[in-house]
Amino acid sequence: MILLDTNLLGRITDSADHQCAAARRAIQVLPARGEPLAIVPQNLYEFWAIATRARTVNGLGMGINQASQWLDYFQRRFVLLPDHNDLVPRWRNLVRTLAITSFRAHDARLVAAMQCYGMTQLLTFNGQDFKSLPVSVIDPASV
Asked: What's the pTM value of the predicted model, to 2 decimals?
């Protein structure tokens, strides 16, 4: 099973984005190869924040209804893994031992969720953000 990074969700919803085609291709090809795709609640929260933020401030400029329809789509299309009881201790261990600060704490939380479910692969356009984290990154453009 492969976890999707939130940046991928944003890209598949925005046909004007230059990485949209690669994102859409990846979410079609990987399951066809027998690789289930998963999301966690954090993906939904982060997507909502990005989707409903104005384009002028690096958002997608969606209204409430459109963003909500996309959340419904994600939950139908991908496996939604609930937050695990061990998530917070795993996250705290990662941020402490790897000295993770600031916004990278969100990336560490995704990796902690992956660890809770024994996942090792993450589909993301932002591989550099996960460089020091114990995860194998898949770039959608390479799929």
From this structure: 0.94
